[in-house]
Write a structure and sequence with these properties.
The complex is a heterodimer of chains A (about 130) and B (about 260). Chain A is mostly helical. Helices cover about 50% and strands about 5% of the residues of chain A. In chain A, strands 1-2 form a two-stranded antiparallel ribbon. The termini of chain A are far apart. Chain B contains nine helices and eleven strands. Chain B is elongated. The chains are: A mainly alpha (about 130), B alpha+beta (about 260). Strand 1 of chain A pairs antiparallel with strand 1 of chain B.
Chain lengths: ~130, ~260
């Protein structure tokens, strides 16, 4: 069976797929993804839990913190080392991480997420 | 082992017993709760407030208390129908509409009364909230989780005291951003807000801000503790509550 207009169709398809995938190809050839550089607290070496845990689970932790503090009225959190912290985003987390733009926003912007924390909570830089 | 009915039933029985015990055994393994109450916190079965209207009854005095409350809770000041308020004042007829008899004692009739959320024992706002954004805490405080509020305003329709305000616009536009209390959040557009009986202060062992600022005109304590400050005042002085016929059992009492 002979294909009608076989040559132009195949060439056309090849050009089309080439153009479609060009951005990916060019992107991987010319650019490499770099993890955002966070500004870590100067005078505090350890977060409330391990770095790995905080990196992957901080959103769940904040969710639990909210319910414990607001609904159960339990506002003291004991971490895995037995150290105690007051449950508060504004008064505990942001006392060390004292700049939202240099810490929170770095990864959130990269990951394309916009959590609504700061619609109500006040960032340590203050509001303008 | 011979596979007969008898051994099968025996094994099935052991398996069933195991299943019944397993969840509890699993739950208790490493089961220490990572959270606890602040040891400085003050506790009650039902927080209540008594406002002595013989001591605080002028618009200016109440405005002063309102200023303290609104400053620490970042409540925006808006004029008119879109006003947001946690603590405010009104005349006798609006405060006690069921008790406005003709020929009332003039002095009482002409006082201004301090108003706030009544933290009812039977709160209609909690019953109507479709998302459980507002709820009654074990200590009787009718609290709000603003993360959950969808702004349907059922609670505002349910509250017989007008204690709730809706944020029609972005509240931060009507706040002095340089004078915010950085320890307390603001709210966002589209949520309802109200007095929280200073739950964040009780959690660290302090009395509510209005009580502290009132210089003894407002008493705060546990309604179910016969030795508490409020019970002492309630025993000694004649008090009334707002709209008792609504059946909400408000916990703010007024000494007349």
């Amino acid at each position: 069976m002979k294909m009608q207009y076989g040559f132009p169709i195949i060439v056309g398809l090849a050009i089309f797929i080439g153009l479609l995938t060009a951005p990916f190809a060019v992107g991987t050839m010319t650019k490499t993804y770099k993890q955002p550089e966070l500004k870590l607290p100067a005078n505090e070496k350890k977060c409330i839990e391990s770095t790995e845990f905080m990196r992957t689970e901080h959103m769940q932790l904040l969710n639990e913190w909210r319910d414990w503090a607001l609904r159960d009225g339990k506002r003291i959190y004991t971490n895995h080392e037995g150290k105690e912290f007051v449950i508060s985003l504004q008064n505990t987390c942001m006392k060390c991480h004292n700049n939202k733009a240099d810490f929170c926003d770095k990864c959130h912007d990269d990951a394309g997420v916009s959590p609504y924390c700061w619609d109500c909570h006040i960032q340590p830089e203050g509001l303008k | 082992m011979k596979n007969n009915r008898r051994t099968f039933i025996k094994l099935a029985g052991i398996a069933a017993a195991g299943l019944a015990v397993a969840p509890k055994a699993m739950a208790s393994s490493g089961g220490h709760s990572p959270v606890k109450v602040n040891p400085e916190a003050v506790h009650a079965k039902q927080w209540a407030m008594v406002i002595d209207t013989t001591k605080v009854h002028t618009e200016e005095a109440i405005a002063e208390l309102s200023k303290v409350c609104h400053a620490i809770h970042n409540v925006p000041s808006i004029e008119g129908k879109r006003e947001v308020k946690w603590l405010w004042s009104d005349e006798y007829g609006h405060t006690f509409p069921e008790q406005e008899n003709p020929h009332l004692a003039e002095e009482v009739h002409h006082r201004t009364y301090m108003l706030l959320c009544n933290h009812c024992e039977n709160p209609p706002c909690v019953r109507v909230c479709p998302t459980k954004a507002t709820y009654k805490r074990p200590d009787g405080i009718v609290a709000m989780d603003y993360h959950r509020c969808i702004g349907c305003r059922y609670c505002m329709a349910g509250c017989p005291y007008g204690s709730r305000s809706f944020n029609w616009g972005e509240p931060r536009k009507n706040l002095d951003l340089s004078k915010l209390n950085p320890e307390f959040p603001t709210r966002m557009r589209g949520v309802v807000e109200k007095c929280n009986f200073c739950v964040e202060r009780l959690a660290v062992g302090k009395m509510p801000a209005c009580v502290e600022a009132s210089k003894g005109a407002i008493v705060f304590g546990d309604l179910y503790d016969p030795d508490s400050e409020v019970r002492k005042v309630l025993r000694e002085k004649f008090t009334i509550r707002r709209k008792p016929s609504a059946g909400t059992e408000p916990c703010v009492y007024y000494v007349i």
